[in-house]
Amino acid sequence: MGLITCGHMLEHPCTLIVVSAIIAWRVRIKICGLDGYGYFASFLIASFFFLLSLLSLPFFKFKYETDRTINWMEIKSVVLNGHYIYMYILTFHLGACVAFQVFWEFWYLDGLQASPLVMGAAALIRRPVLAAFLFTSCYVIERIGELNTVCVSLLLFTVAFFALSFSRVYWYVLAVDTLHSAGYGLAKSAFTLHFSKAGSKASSGVILGFESMCFILGVDCGATFIGLLFHAIGVRSTLLLYAGMTAIMLAIFLCYLKFSKHVNEYEKLPVDSDDDVDNSNANDDNKHINNLK
């Protein structure tokens, strides 16, 4: 459990990653008579950094938009729309796929006899790789659209889980890790852009909040099911199962994009400007709701 939490902490800033990896590698402890790495040091280092982060609170400035009125009818029409329900399900599945990289990858690397330095290198490499794909996602989305970008992401996750199921060398796991980062970066940008088009700016915060909620629920549920399946059917079978489920989700999504007559309209929904939101009347809101329906 400590190792999994240590892996989650390695998602934090680069300084914490490097320091935690070096100290855990240098410090050794005995557990039931067996020598082990000092992963406990990550808890102490993380608590110190969290304490330092509190010092920045007095310098934050918050601005609240009090002149916007949230149109709950518009939000209801979006949340209950069949297309966006399907998008929320895909967002949940994205979180379930990312759960392996967040919670279980370091446990998997430890099972392959990887040292804390290798785990630290994995986390350290992941950050610029993820940043690079988040940056390039705008060009990919501009070229092929956000929904096709989601297809590319699902394909990357399918290949990644399939490759992981046959990887028994931790260096190969680090290479496959780039596919996970690429899939996450592309899909997260695509879903955020797609849901931002679902309603007016006054309501987009709530709509995007539902998107974040589905993603976090997917991460937590995915991490839980991965652990249960690892124990029940084994590591390789679990990774193959996730690869198969992601491939099925990809096939269904491709069929939806191919045969749906109105899917392109959701990529072109106009987003109201701030002035339009502030000056909109009930007729404009009802017209937008009818378009969504």
UniProtKB/TrEMBL annotation:
Residues 40-238 form the Major facilitator superfamily associated domain. Keywords: Membrane, Transmembrane, Transmembrane helix. It is a multi-pass membrane protein. One of its GO terms (cellular component) is membrane. Residues 284-293 have a biased composition (Basic and acidic residues). The chain crosses the membrane at residues 37-62, 83-104, 116-135, 147-164, 208-233, 239-259. Gene3D superfamilies: MFS general substrate transporter like domains. InterPro entries: MFS_assoc_dom, MFS_MFSD6, MFS_trans_sf. Residues 274-293 are annotated as: Disordered. It is found in: Membrane. The keyword Membrane applies. Belongs to the major facilitator superfamily. MFSD6 family. This is Major facilitator superfamily associated domain-containing protein. It comes from Paramuricea clavata.
